[in-house]
Structures are given as C-alpha cells and as structure tokens.
Amino acid sequence: MSSPTIIESLRGRDLLALSDLTRDEFTGLLTSALELKRGWQAGERPALLKHQTLAMIFEKQSLRTRSTFDIAMYQLGGHSVLLSQNYIGWGVRETIKDVAHNLERWTQGIMARTYGHGTLLELAEHAGVPVINGLSDLLHPCQLTADYLTLKETFGDLEGLKIAFVGDGNNVCNSHLNAAALTGTSLTVACPEGFEPDAEVLAAARARGADITLVRDPREAAEGADVLYTDVWISMGQEEEAVRRREAFRGYTVTLEWLDGLSERGIFMHDLPAHYGEEVTEEVVYSPRSRVFDQAENRLHAHKAILFQLMRDG
C-alpha cells in the first residue's frame, strides 16, 4: 500500500462533527484508517503529509489526543506545533478570528481541544485551512472514529450491531448518536433523568434513520448488547458538580457481573481516562472482554486517516 483509499470529498474540509459526513465518507475514513494501520505494521512509511504542519490547540489536559495527533503527523512525514491557552490567550489577549487568520498562514491544518463547541465553530468560520474537533463539550468525533475502527476490526460488519452506552449523555454519547446514523448500528442509551444526550443531536440522528432508544435502567441497556460502553461521570470543568453527579449515577458502575449479561461476543469499551470505582471497576477494564487499550491504540490510526484525508495536497 503506497497510499490509502482517497476520499475526494473530504480534502480541505473541516471535521467538527460526524454528522458533517455522509455514510460513505465515514466508511471511507474507517477503511483508510485500517489501511494505514496495516501498512505501518507491515513496515510501510509513506510520507503522505511531507512538509505539512498541524497546529494543535489545547484548552483541556490531554494524554491520548495530544500524543496521537503529534505521533500521527510524524508518521505521515509532517510536523505539529503545540499551543495552549496559556500561550495564545484567545478571547483575552487575542480574538479567535485573529488566531485563525494567523495560523492559516503558517499551517495546513488546525486541531483544537476546547471547552465550548462555539469556539470550534468560530475557529472554523475564519480559518482557511481544515479545522478538526479534538474534543468539545458537545462532541468528540475523533474518538468515535477510533471506536468504530475498533468495532470494524472486532466484528467486521457493523450493521445491526447492538451498542449500549450507559452513563452521562456527554460529548462522547452525542457522537455515538451521530455514528449510529452513519453505520446502521442499534444504540441504547441509559442515563439518569437530567443527564440525557443533547436533544438537537438526538433529533438529527433519528431524522437520518438512526435506531436509538433511551432508557433509565443501565442493566436493561446492557442486557444482550454486543458492546457495552461507558465514560466518566464528571468531565473536566464539572468538578463542582461532583457530589450531585455521583449521587445521580448511583447504580451505574459497570462491574464484572455486568459482562455476563452481554451477548456471547460482547465486549466492553471506554474512551479513558477511567475513574475506577465510579463508572467502572479496574477489573472490567483489564478483563478479557475489554477493548479499551485497542481503542487507545486506534486513536493514532484514526487520526492519521483524518489528517491525510483533510490535509493532503491532492
């Protein structure tokens, strides 16, 4: 493989939400990610983004996003520049609009991990280069690309796969809704009252044909599922809500016992970091059914596919 499958329609585009993609585009992203992964494992080192530079902006702490985008650019023959809010001070020292117009003169792409989704929208509005959502309070499309790469490797066919998401209707959950609309998977979301996924994202996913069910009982959602997925109850920026959230999610801790109720081929997934004793026990993450570290590994290859498709010269 000298070059992965090319998706012509993605060149020069932003990736702010999986809902920005067609089903064929998302399928193509997964295919090219798998090709890049297999090629790397076979010793292929094509410099697909030679002399290209990615600006990486972080408002939030990061292990996986920061590491994998940096390594992805290196493995593609390019370079990354790390910027934090302490460096650029957008919204205080300088406007987001001005930051965008500076970065578009120096780089061929921008990845931003932000608190507010509106920050990404404003950045994309003004930047003349592709903008990638590395995470926002609303969505986490890159994570779900890696997750579905993991599902493709594990199950092959995604159509009809039964996925249960239990916990907070957060950015990861919202992106699960988007992914269900693109893949034909069947998604059941279990969350306490007041912690549902975003209503507009849910309505849009259902309008595109997604099979989504909302329930209150997490064990009901998990029963017979092919995939049991959970995430933290307290995301960065929600620390003041910790006591209220822990009380609301009482009974949502995934234990080894839950895995017995999955389908025969059922697996466990978590996007990390995990808060052991809250949303999941450590034994589950390190159990034979866990694909947690496969997901983390696949962040690298999913990000390579996203960067290549959006930033390639031609």
From TrEMBL:
Catalysed transformations (reactions): carbamoyl phosphate + L-ornithine = L-citrulline + phosphate + H(+)
GO cellular-component term (any): cytoplasm
Domain Aspartate/ornithine carbamoyltransferase Asp/Orn-binding: 159-308
Domain Aspartate/ornithine carbamoyltransferase carbamoyl-P binding: from-to ranges: 13-153
Positions of L-ornithine binding: N171, D231, S235, M236
Pathway, per record: Amino-acid biosynthesis; L-arginine biosynthesis; L-arginine from L-ornithine and carbamoyl phosphate: step 1/3
Family statement: Belongs to the aspartate/ornithine carbamoyltransferase superfamily. OTCase family.
Protein name: Ornithine carbamoyltransferase
Species per Swiss-Prot/TrEMBL record: Truepera radiovictrix (strain DSM 17093 / CIP 108686 / LMG 22925 / RQ-24)
